[in-house]
Amino acid sequence: MAKLYDQITDALQDFIAAQQIFFVATAPLSPSGHVNLSPKGLDSFRILSPHRVAYLDLTGSGNETSAHLQENGRITLMFCAFAGAPLILRLYGQGRTVLPDDAEWLVLSGLFPEIPGARQIVVAEIDRVQSSCGTGVPLYEHQSDRDEIIHWAQKKGESGLQDYWYEKNRVSIDGLPTPISEAI
Start and end of every Pyridoxamine 5'-phosphate oxidase N-terminal domain (predicted)? Predict the structure, then answer.
């Protein structure tokens, strides 16, 4: 059964820290728009307070999360136990994007390892913390992180990444604009 929490408790923080993957969901306001659901990994998630979290967002084929957050701010982050006791944890809130040329970037980026291809940091104010059983989630064993995205970003270089962001990450699949760094 679902359980609500007033905040991200110490026990839930420990659970989150033990996960190798998390999922981010956002959606546009338009009923004909596409819901976006993305897996994330690579030591990219941080708990800033019991009601505030952030993750380092790496370059991808699209930038749906950023477009949706700019339009309406709604975000859900989900963690699943793929090992140990079953548990699903969802964090609901309002998110925003912090770009490399924003003043806040210097403080937040220092919380994460330096990963080539980092394009933005997503910060979310959490207003609902909810767990559910997770007994239908299969057991998996983590082998290692994939490093293809790191090698791809290194090969592109800074100017190549900026060109890619400009070409591929300025507009969502539904035509919504995304915030982009002024450096582009």
Answer: 8-132
| pLDDT tens digits along 26-85 | 999 999 999 999 999 999 999 999 999 999 999 988 999 999 999 999 999 999 999 999
The count of C-alpha atoms lying within 13 angstroms of the C-alpha of 25, restricted to the half-sphere facing its C-beta, is 8
Both tokens of residue 128?
A: 């609902």
Contact present, 34 and 68 (Cβ < 8 Å): no
Return the structure tokens found at 61.
Answer: 């084929």
CB-facing half-sphere around the CA of 120: CA atoms within 13 A: 27
The domain spans of the chain are: 3-135+145-168
Task: Classify strands 118-132 and 3-5 as parallel, antiparallel or unpaired.
Answer: antiparallel
| Average pLDDT value over all residues in the chain | 94
Specify the 3-state DSSP secondary structure of 45: strand
Q: How many CB atoms lie within 10 A of CB 26?
A: 23
What would be the CATH architecture of the domain defined by 3-135+145-168?
A: Roll (2.30)
Q: Considering just the CA atoms, what is the radius of gyration of the chain in Å?
A: 16
User: Cα–Cα distance between 174 and 88 in angstroms, integer?
Assistant: 30
CA distance 122 to 102: 12
Give residue 142's identity as a one-letter amino acid code: H
